[in-house]
Automatic annotation (TrEMBL), chains A, B:
Its EC number is 2.1.1.193. This is Ribosomal RNA small subunit methyltransferase E. NCBIfam families: PRK11713.6-1 (NF008702), RsmE family RNA methyltransferase (TIGR00046). GO terms for cellular component: cytoplasm. Belongs to the RNA methyltransferase RsmE family. Residues 16-63 form the Ribosomal RNA small subunit methyltransferase E PUA-like domain. Its main location: cytoplasm. Keywords: Cytoplasm, Methyltransferase, rRNA processing, S-adenosyl-L-methionine, Transferase. Pfam families: Methyltrans_RNA, PUA_4. It comes from Pedobacter insulae. It comes from the Bacteria. GO terms for molecular function: rRNA (uridine-N3-)-methyltransferase activity. The lineage of its organism: Bacteria, Pseudomonadati, Bacteroidota, Sphingobacteriia, Sphingobacteriales.
């Protein structure tokens, strides 16, 4: 059954946007009485029937509603330096959405070659992964922010930083966290965090973590952390 | 330090191919006496000094050798149906190489939309990930083979199949395997394995596994399995 992302769904009758109405009628060739799935991004999974349809306007009637669909038992926030090649960040967003993540913040670091990201485009990648993987919760993409500004914010839960510098204090994530809590993990740029950034993070209570024994790219490291947190919370 | 992949390295003096010599001299602008890293794909990590150099011919003298570099404590073989969009399979190969995998076989299944793969191109993706992640062991890419032919082969170790059909027998990988062994995991195409293929696999001693609670794309499922096996063997 086809899935539409309808974050502004607030009643038992819903009208698709003109763009989605056209997609529904012209591309999918759906017709009166057909059923579709709707996801509101807040845990709501709906089954709806097409109650009226024309090229520009498709009206849906909710016939079944499920709340807290696939509700997660923890909160994972990954702050990642945007990759030089933006495809790699988009790839991470797609995969992390499939596997399970709640919040992502692009952080601009001292050694970031890419200092600008188009949040709207990245959010579209997340939305299409939400639909594809039928995740009823839409991960939140925060605006890009500099690393130092980011550290000035308040966080609840476990604070972890993955860096490449030799560091005896590094431990694997499972040694540092317990299940069912909030986690914030910092992933640096291709050139790693600067020593000053690392020192700043440690002062702010972040624990250095190691992600396996191999040398991972930025987006692979971020996904590895995402895997591990979800694994710990299975 | 720059890394070259030299599978045919067999003495203390080595000459780069014309292509790599040009890359070394013209692109990297390296010169006499500079040091580089060599990886032979069989666990050998070498440090070499440029003992002679011109545009088409770079000669290297091994100054330090390390064997069994990053030797793995298990053997992971993933047989995966090539994705319709080949980029997704290439992406999996890159990421699996970074995280850790020993053998990959493209399997052509009943519902495979893509029935042809260019092994040479896929192997190049693996090689570049080997160099990038400094993995001294080069994962083996087997030629594509049909699912039924593949099942006729002999395997040692744990046999797992990840499918999307409802199946009470499905368990998570960690419930089915022990560390430090050989693992073979089957990952189906976008349309999943056919019931006949699943029955065939079960007859051949494969255990159905579940990969988390979310709906994963083919390449994401394969990487998830790769992550979990490596995690179990940390």
């Amino acid at each position: 059954m086809h899935i539409f992302y309808t974050p502004d769904l607030d009643s038992d009758v819903f009208t698709l946007s003109e763009e989605e109405s056209r997609h529904c009628s012209k591309v999918l060739r759906l017709s009166l009485g057909d059923h579709v799935h709707l996801i509101d991004g807040k845990g709501g999974l709906f089954e709806a029937e097409i109650s009226a349809i024309n090229k520009k306007n498709v009206q849906l009637k909710i016939v079944h509603k499920q709340s807290d669909f696939g509700k997660r038992n923890h909160h994972l926030h990954i702050a990642i330096a945007p990759t030089k090649n933006i495809d790699r960040l988009e790839w991470f967003l797609e995969k992390a959405t499939e596997i399970g993540i709640d919040e992502v913040t692009p952080i601009i670091c001292d050694r970031s070659e890419r200092r600008i990201v188009k949040e709207e485009r990245l959010d579209k990648v997340i939305t299409s992964a939400v639909k594809q993987s039928m995740t009823a919760y839409h991960p939140k993409l925060n605006p890009a922010i500099t690393f130092s500004e980011f550290l000035n914010q308040d966080f609840i839960g476990a604070r972890l930083i993955a860096h490449c510098m030799a560091d005896a204090a590094k431990q694997s994530i499972d040694k540092l966290v317990t299940p069912h809590q909030s986690y914030l993990i910092l992933i640096g740029p291709e050139g790693d965090f600067s020593p000053a950034e690392l020192a700043n993070a440690l002062e702010n209570g972040f624990n250095p973590v190691t992600l396996g024994n191999t040398r991972l790219r930025t987006e692979t490291a971020a996904l590895y952390a995402c895997f591990e947190i979800n694994y710990i919370n299975r």
